[in-house]
From TrEMBL, chain A:
Required for the export of heme to the periplasm for the biogenesis of c-type cytochromes. GO terms for cellular component: plasma membrane. NCBIfam families: cytochro_ccmD. InterPro entries: Haem_export_protD_CcmD. This is Heme exporter protein D. Keywords: Cell inner membrane, Cell membrane, Cytochrome c-type biogenesis, Membrane, Transmembrane, Transmembrane helix, Transport. It is a single-pass membrane protein. It is found in: Cell inner membrane. Its main location: membrane.
From TrEMBL, chain B:
Belongs to the CcmC/CycZ/HelC family. GO terms for cellular component: plasma membrane. The chain crosses the membrane at residues 20-42, 62-82, 94-116, 128-148, 160-180, 200-222. It is a multi-pass membrane protein. Residues 7-184 form the Cytochrome c assembly protein domain. NCBIfam families: ccmC. One of its GO terms (molecular function) is heme transmembrane transporter activity. Keywords: Cell inner membrane, Cell membrane, Cytochrome c-type biogenesis, Membrane, Transmembrane, Transmembrane helix, Transport. The lineage of its organism: Bacteria, Pseudomonadati, Pseudomonadota, Alphaproteobacteria, Rhodobacterales. This is Heme exporter protein C. It is found in: Cell inner membrane; Membrane. Pfam families: Cytochrom_C_asm. Required for the export of heme to the periplasm for the biogenesis of c-type cytochromes. It comes from Meinhardsimonia xiamenensis. Its main location: membrane.
Amino acid sequence: MMPDLGKYALAVLSAYGVSLVLIAAIVAQSVLRARRVRRELEKAEARHRNG
Amino acid sequence: MASIWEYANPRKFLATTDVVLPWVTALAAITLVAGLIWGFFFTPDDYKQGSTVKIIYLHVPSALMAINAWLMMLVASLIWLVRRHHVSALAARAAAPVGATFTLIALATGAIWGQPMWGTWWAWDPRLTSFLILFLFYLGYMALWQAVENPDTAADLTSVLCIVGSVFAVLSRYAVNFWNQGLHQGASLSLDREEHVADVFYYPLLVSIAGFVLLFIALVLLRTRTEIRARRLYALAARERMGQGAAG
């Protein structure tokens, strides 16, 4: 299944590795921050409602 | 017919993206995975570049999105400066880390691809250099948002920085046409069939580009929602501080 990358295997695999790690990092950071801010806003709005 | 400016209302934006975002995210994941699997596993080696041609499915889409993300930020910044819609300023802010990530991917994959093909990781070639400057503009833009406490002042200053940085976004795309010297070749994609890469590479490349575009849209929508909430949080915290100050 794995294609024969020949003498450039390291270059091709490292390009895919670096890119996928960076994509995963920005997706994870976006999702985690979205959850954290949403949670904090819910708490702040509850405090605001209760005076 | 609804006006596009309705979406400048944060509540309307949140309600609409609540419905749209899961679909865009799913489509982005399917398209990106399909494009990369097609390109990596089911395309032949190039007669000159060997298997390194598979890097094109990451390098070209990320470079394309690095430039277009900045242009999207430019449009959003201009809307902020002219019409003072907060959502547009927050959308520009939300897009910056995504654009910076794509720029970093383009720079990294370019260096990794350049080493075996050109014999060097880096050259002070017009396109490479303008891309590096674009990356530095992304970092400066994000740092400026962090450095200024008042959100409206930060939006004003970053909008001006975005306009200045647009010169390098355009240069990154067209530098190769302005100057003949440099290692980087011309565009891989063109409306002229004779100019772009062979069909066997072209179709998976189009799918991969679609995947990167959809990923960018999904991330910007998600991050804009977060920025809207963060702004509301900032307003509530300021109100609490004022209340405490008045009570004290």
